[in-house]
Amino acid sequence: MPSLALNPPVNDSLASLCTPRTSVFQGSKNDTALDLTDFLNGTISIDFLDENFFTDGLNQLVRFGLRRLAGKSDQGIFILSQSMGGGKTHGMITLGLLAQNPEIRKNIWAITTIQVPNRVMSG
């Protein structure tokens, strides 16, 4: 059976397995604590999504949330737990940005088959 990329040899260091984006070292982004009001006020751009890694939990939230907004699911309550790569606020902002911006949803593989209205948040 071939080895999986997620299970590298023990002797490989983190530095040898990945190269961080330049933004990781920019203090202005590292020191920013986001709030849902930042999203609601329109102060978070779609560039926010460049800093995302779609973990299983974030993938699930986005898929289920967009299905609900598209009227393809009756599930309206989602229990959000903090997870590596996307906390609760982070996940809700990601879902909101994807719901508002259908043109960028097609770039997210997990949700390419889900159609939602052009704008799902009231302004």
Main attributes of the structure:
123 residues, 0% strand, single chain, mainly alpha
Number of helices: 6
Write down the secondary-structure element order.
HHHHHH
Kindly state the number of beta strands: 0
Q: How would you describe the shape?
A: globular
Alpha-beta content class: mainly alpha
Strand fraction:
under 5%
Radius of gyration: 17 Å
Mean pLDDT: 74
Q: In terms of per-residue confidence, which ranges show pLDDT below 50 for 5 or more consecutive residues?
A: none
Largest sheet: number of strands, sense, barrel closure: none
Distance between the termini: 52 Å
Helix content: 25-40%
Describe what is shown at a glance.
This protein is mainly alpha-helical and about 120 residues long. The protein has helices at about 15, 25-30, 35-40, 55-70, 90-100, 100-105. The termini are far apart.
Describe the protein's architecture and organization.
With 123 residues, the chain is mostly helical. Helices cover 36% and strands 0% of the residues. It is built from six helices and no strands. Helix 4 (56-69) crosses helix 5. The longest helix is centred in the middle third of the chain and has 14 residues, at 56-69. The mean pLDDT is 74.
